[in-house]
Amino acid sequence: MESQHSDPTGGGQDNGRARTLGERVERVGDTAQEAWTRTREAFDDIKGTLDIQGRVDRHPYGTVAAAVGIGYVLGGGLFSPLTARILGLGLRIGLRLAAIPVLRDELFGFAEALGDRRAAGGEEGGARGGAQGTTQAKANKERQP
Amino acid sequence: MEMTAKLEETAHEIEERVRPQIREAKRRIAAFNEEAIEFIKANPGKCLLGALAAGYIIGKIASR
Fold first, then answer.
1. What distance in Å separates residue B51's CA from the closest CA in chain A?
2. Which residues 29-48 of chain A have a CB within 8 Å of chain B?
3. What is the dihedral of CA A128, A129, A135, A137, to 10 degrees?
4. Is residue A84 scored above 90 in pLDDT?
5. In whole angstroms, what is the distance from residue A18 CA to residue A63 CA?
6. Is the ipTM of this complex over 0.90?
């Protein structure tokens, strides 16, 4: 730039054009650099807000799975038969897992109740049997001379 | 009785033969898991972008 100003050969218009062009290029460069800096700052801000590194450190597989899920939704796979199938399978497994403890408790309760009833029946039967035995013994005694 | 004893013996033999392989497989899986976690922690951007791209492709394929 300085050499263009001190050009002794004349051609002021050319020098002016060159200076203007140089200034423009410089300005464009400055603007581009500023835009890049701002973009980087915005990116850093987003990074800081999302705390990607922290999340990845805490839950590496979970973060990757979340990224796959976001990509899947962005790819338009949300309202697709595959999603319906996956959701159906998950629902079925979840229901089974939820139903198994309830069924187990019910079965245990039923078995206990059945056992109690049998035990009560056995005691009653035993008592009844015992009473019958004593009456028969009495009858036998009476029959004997 | 002999049959049962033989079966038990065979089962024990198989168990003895298979146990080291299972242990080795477990060790390998654990090592792979550690490596994967280390890689994800070392390159989170790459991994997340790759996962995002993979999910996008799967979503595209699923939506067709």
1. 5
2. none
3. -160
4. yes
5. 54
6. no
Q: What is the pLDDT of residues A104-123, one digit of tens each?
A: 999 999 999 988 888 887 76
Q: B59 in contact with A at a CB cutoff of 8 Å?
A: yes
So where are chain B's domains? 2-63
Q: Where are the domains of chain A?
A: 1-50
Q: What is the pLDDT of residues A16-75, one digit of tens each?
A: 666 788 888 999 999 999 999 999 999 888 878 888 889 999 999 999 999 999 999 999
| Token pair 């029946």: residue | A121
Contact between A53 and B45 (Cβ < 8 Å): no
CB contacts, 8 Å: B60 with chain A: 75-77
Provide CB contacts within 8 A for A74, sequence distance 6+: B52, B55, B56, B59
Residue B12: C-alpha distances to residues A67, A78, B8, B22 (Å): 46, 50, 6, 15
User: Which residue of A63, A69, A80 is in closest CB contact with B63?
Assistant: A80
Which of A8, A56, A35, A48 has its CA nearest to residue B43? A56
Among B residues 4-43, those touching chain A with beta carbons less than 8 Å apart: 36-37, 40-41
Which residues from A are below 8 Å from B45, CB to CB? Answer: 52
